[in-house]
From TrEMBL:
Residues 194-339 form the Glycosyl transferase family domain. Pathway: Glycolipid biosynthesis; glycosylphosphatidylinositol-anchor biosynthesis. Keywords: Glycosyltransferase, GPI-anchor biosynthesis, Transferase. Residues 436-447 have a biased composition (Basic and acidic residues). This is phosphatidylinositol N-acetylglucosaminyltransferase. Its EC number is 2.4.1.198. The lineage of its organism: Eukaryota, Viridiplantae, Streptophyta, Embryophyta, Tracheophyta. It comes from Vitis vinifera (Grape). It comes from the Eukaryota. PANTHER family: N-ACETYLGLUCOSAMINYL-PHOSPHATIDYLINOSITOL BIOSYNTHETIC PROTEIN, PHOSPHATIDYLINOSITOL N-ACETYLGLUCOSAMINYLTRANSFERASE SUBUNIT A. CDD domains: GT4_PIG-A-like. SUPFAM superfamilies: UDP-Glycosyltransferase/glycogen phosphorylase.
C-alpha cells in the first residue's frame, strides 16, 4: 500500500482486552484486519489491574494502557481535561492521522474525540448500543452524545436500527452515519464434528446476567419450557447481579439436574459451550446487533431471540426464531424452534455464515469511512463552535465554553512542550509470517 493511502489510526475505548465483550472483540478484530491491509493501528484504553503501560498483541498491535483506573462498569472517571496531556503525547509520538472512538458509554472515548478535534485531527465514532429517550440515564447520555458528535467527522453504527437511534439521539446528519455490521471469526467458531442427537435438547444461554440482557425473562421462561418438554436441558453461562434470581428459580422448581449454571465463561471456552447445545437463546431487552448470535450461528445452533433493536437484521429468517420480549411469546418461539430443529444442518449453517460475515469486509468498508473522514475540510475554532450552539439554549453555550477551555489548555501545552520536543516512534512492519492472515472465506488466521 502506498504511503499516501496508509492511515495511522488510534482506536480509543474504555472497553478492551483483558475485558471481554462485543466492543472488545470488534476493536481487536478490526484492528488486526486494518494492520493486514497495511495501515498503522494503535489502541488506547485504561489500565486493567496491573496491566499498565505499553503492550503488544498479535500482529504487532500496540496498546497503550494509560494509568487511569475504572470506577464504574469498566469506565474511567470523567476528567474533561485530565487526559489531554497524555492524549497529545500519544498522538504526536505515533504520528496519528485519525482517531476512532468506540462506544457511547465510554468516558475515555468522549474525552479523546474532544481533544483530537481541538488538535485538528479527524475523528470517527462507532456506536455499539441503543439508548432510550425517557429515563434519566438515557437523557444524560444522549446530551453527552450530542456534544461529542456535534463535531465528529464521520460516524458508524452496527445496524440500521442503531443508525436511526443514533441520528435521533444526537441530531447528526444521516449522510454522516454509515452502517457497518459486526462480524464473526468463523475459523474459531466451528460446529461439532458430529451432529448431536435430538434425544435430549440442550438450550444454551451465554450472556451477562443483568436486567438489560433479559435475565428476568429467563426466570419465567426456563421453568415453563422444562414443564412442557421433559427432554430439554439448559446450560447458562455468564455472571451478574441477576444470577441470584436464576439460582433461586432453579432451587424453587427443583431444576438442579436440568439447569446448569457455569458462571463467567472465558471467551476461549465459548465455542466448547456452544457446540454442546442445539439452540441458542438470547433474551435481551435492547440490542444494537449482538455478536453472540453470530458466534452461535457459526457453530451451527438455531437461534431464538427477542425481537429488539437490530437483532432482526442479523440472520436470515430460516436461521432464527424471533419473539417479543414477553415470557409467553418466548415459550412459543422456543417450542417452534424445537419442532424445526431436525431440519437444521450445523455444517450448512456454518458455511452460510462464512459468506454472510467476515472481518475483512468490515475492515474494507471502515477504510472507506476513514477516507471520507480525512477528506472533510479543516475548520478553525470559531467555525467549530457554531456546531455546538444549536445543541440547546444553555447546553450549547456550556459546550462552547468546554471547547474554548480545551483549546486554551492545548495552546498552553504547545508552549510548555513544543511538538518537536516529543520523540516520534519509528514505524515498522512485521514480516508476513508474523502478520494475521485472511483465509479464502475471509476469516482471520492469527498465527
Amino acid at each position: 500500500m502506498g504511503d499516501q493511502k496508509r492511515h495511522k489510526i488510534l482506536m480509543v475505548s474504555d472497553f478492551f482486552y483483558p475485558n471481554f465483550g462485543g466492543v472488545e472483540n470488534h476493536i481487536y478484530y478490526l484492528s488486526q484486519c486494518l494492520l493486514k491491509l497495511g495501515h498503522k493501528v494503535v489502541v488506547l484504553t485504561h489500565a486493567y489491574g496491573n496491566r499498565s503501560g505499553v503492550r503488544y498483541m498479535t500482529g504487532g498491535l500496540k496498546v497503550y494502557y494509560i494509568p487511569w483506573k475504572p470506577f464504574l462498569m469498566q469506565n474511567t472517571l470523567p476528567t474533561f481535561y485530565g487526559t489531554l496531556p497524555i492524549m497529545r503525547t500519544i498522538l504526536i509520538r505515533e504520528k496519528i492521522s485519525l482517531v476512532h472512538g468506540h462506544q457511547a458509554f465510554s468516558t475515555l472515548c468522549h474525552e479523546a474525540l474532544m481533544h483530537a478535534r481541538t488538535m485538528g485531527y479527524k475523528v470517527v465514532f462507532t456506536d455499539h448500543s441503543l439508548y432510550g429517550f425517557a429515563d434519566v440515564g438515557s437523557i444524560h447520555m444522549n446530551k453527552v452524545l450530542q456534544f461529542t458528535l456535534a463535531d465528529v467527522s464521520q460516524a458508524i453504527c452496527v445496524s440500521h436500527t442503531s443508525k436511526e437511534n443514533t441520528v435521533l439521539r444526537s441530531g447528526l446528519p444521516p449522510e454522516k452515519v454509515f452502517v457497518i455490521p459486526n462480524a464473526v471469526d468463523t475459523a474459531m467458531f466451528t460446529p461439532a464434528p458430529e451432529k448431536l442427537s435430538h434425544n435430549e435438547i440442550v438450550i444454551i444461554v451465554i450472556s451477562r446476567l443483568v436486567y438489560r440482557k433479559g435475565a428476568d425473562l429467563l426466570v419465567e421462561v426456563i421453568p415453563e419450557i422444562c414443564r412442557l418438554f421433559s427432554n430439554v436441558r439448559f446450560i447458562v453461562g455468564g455472571d451478574g447481579p441477576k444470577r441470584v434470581r436464576l439460582e433461586e428459580m432453579r432451587e424453587k422448581n427443583s431444576l438442579q439436574d436440568r439447569v446448569e449454571m457455569l458462571g463467567a465463561v472465558p471467551h476461549a471456552r465459548v465455542r466448547s459451550v456452544l457446540i454442546s447445545g442445539h439452540i441458542f437463546l438470547n433474551s435481551s431487552l435492547t440490542e444494537a446487533f449482538c455478536i453472540a448470535i453470530l458466534e452461535a450461528a457459526s457453530c451451527g445452533l438455531l437461534t431464538v431471540s427477542t425481537r429488539v433493536g437490530g437483532v432482526p437484521e442479523v440472520l436470515p429468517d430460516d436461521m432464527i426464531v424471533l419473539a417479543e420480549p414477553d415470557p409467553s411469546d418466548m415459550v412459543r418461539a422456543i417450542t417452534k424452534a424445537i419442532s424445526i430443529l431436525p431440519k437444521i444442518d450445523p455444517q450448512v449453517m456454518h458455511l452460510r455464515m462464512k459468506k454472510l460475515y467476515n472481518w475483512h469486509d468490515v475492515a474494507k468498508r471502515t477504510e472507506i469511512v476513514y477516507d471520507r473522514a480525512l477528506g472533510c475540510s479543516n475548520q478553525n475554532l470559531v467555525d467549530r463552535l457554531s456546531r455546538y450552539l444549536p445543541c440547546g439554549g444553555w447546553a450549547g453555550k456550556l459546550f462552547c465554553l468546554v471547547m474554548i477551555i480545551d483549546f486554551l489548555l492545548w495552546r498552553l501545552l504547545q508552549l510548555w512542550q513544543p511538538p518537536e520536543e516529543i520523540e516520534e516512534v519509528p514505524d515498522f512492519s512485521l514480516p508476513n509470517s508474523e502478520c494475521p492472515e485472511f483465509k479464502e472465506d475471509g476469516s482471520l488466521s492469527l498465527r
